[in-house]
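Running this now, will post back.
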Amino acid sequence: MFYIDDSGAESTGYIVYGWLEVALEHWSASLRCWLDFRKQLYQRTGIPADYELHATKFITGRSNPSIHHEWNRQKRLRGRVVQDALATIETMPGAQAGAVWRRTTKTGRAYYAERAAAYEALLHHLDDTLARVGDHGIIVMDGDGTDPAYRREHRKLKLATRNIVEDPWFIGSHASQPVQAADLLAYTAYQTVLRHPGKQFMWHWWPTLLPNAYGPHEI
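Update: finished.
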């Protein structure tokens, strides 16, 4: 299974897709590893296990994730949580992180068309990877499915040879722990390639905490 989320911004020209790949035979053990992390996180920080770890809100200091007021006031602690999350992903049985990116000068509708093209390239990469090992996969994405571009790209795949099964399945990140992991991967991969001076503390997270990940690679 591939849990995928996107990041980037039209203002920077970046389009990023991050994902968490989990082998089906290791799905239960992989999820247990993540849930144990969330349990330990609650014990250390007071952040409930059912609190949504949404990268753009969490890292930037919005909202109050912890039941402890003093913890919420220390923004630097949030970065440590995300680093711990990435380190946990690296150790999840049968799982691998991945990210791809593209940069464009297009704006408006053309930017969103380029985002769909980047997803098409990612989809073919995943489909080809599965074909090489003789396996099949399902894509689960953050969102409500109202953007038709993703479904359209899946239906372009040749039925006789495709290894990605079905259209993408959509679920809100608030309702899925693996999708939250994908959200963290997408956002931190974006910061890795963006190299914004104000986010320099995040530049090294992928190479140091996710040494076995795929990417972030330009696509």
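DSSP finds eight helices and six strands in the chain. More later if anyone needs it.
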